[in-house]
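Folding follows sequence. Below is one example:
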Amino acid sequence: MNKKALALLSGGLDSILAVRVLQEQGIELEGINFLTVFCTCTHKGCQHAATKAAHTLKMPLKVFNITEEYLDVIRNPKHGYGSNMNPCIDCRIFIFKKAKEYMKEVGASFLVTGEVLGERPMSQRRDAIFLIEKEAGLKRLVLRPLSAKLFPPTIAEEKGIVDRDKLLAITGRSRKPQIKLAAEFGINDYPCPAGGCLLTDPGFAKRIKDLIEYDCLTLDNVRLLKFGRHFRLSRHAKLIIGRDQDENTVIESLTGTGDVRFKLKGREGPFSILKGVYDKEMIDLSAAMVVQHTKFRNEDMVEVEYWTDDPSRTAVLSAKAASPDLVEKNRI
């Protein structure tokens, strides 16, 4: 075992402090960050926060986008979900396994995390922490500098590579000990703890459940979940309606081959797409629902343009706005 460690670096205060505590002991550290579309750490994204933190800490950082692989964890988590669709324990096992692979690549002897005992209700309980280590094949190789004295010594501590006396015993959800420690290190610029994972959001979780139920959990479909209003029209068809011009632009960029596109003829309104298996009746229903989401909903008829992959082959239909009850019945 050597004095090089791999640190899970989210860019949040806990991970920054964990690195600083070990840097004070002369441990050589390299950072790793795992990125998914479900992360909401900052308005600029997790990669930005981690990159900024690594620059401040003067340490190398490797970022991996693991969204596609991570979908398998969401589909069928061995240890179940949290309050919504967050498979926190399985997520942590998955990340630890990925980190273990990279440890071998960079020659690191142990893994460092900013975890604090009891800070997160599902994955940072004592029993969950030990379970995650074991299933990831990292038993006694994960050092948590902020809570280390609340756990048995890791191998790095036993071998004297890390001085256990200089580690901490922080526990619980209060941020006061971390803020105090940050001040001692002169760390003033760090993200607030408001970020997290979209899978814990009830509304987003409902949309994820819908994709799983109808066997549509793909990376392209997941990307769309962040944007627009979503409606399940049949087992094989789904409608997404933009809410503003920015969303219209994003949804249009995420349109897939064979999707039906909708927009009002000669008027401002949402850009919308119908995905899946559809017929003329489904197209008519979609157009009616699109009209309901415009300021022209009270007109007798509104002209709606629609096309598939060739915009030069646009057709036009006249649609009356769908009833609010019908809209709500199909809303995801």
Q: What stands out?
A: The longest helix spans residues 88-106. The chain has a mean pLDDT of 95. Residues 230 and 240 are 5 Å apart (CA to CA). The chain has two domains: 4-185, 227-330.
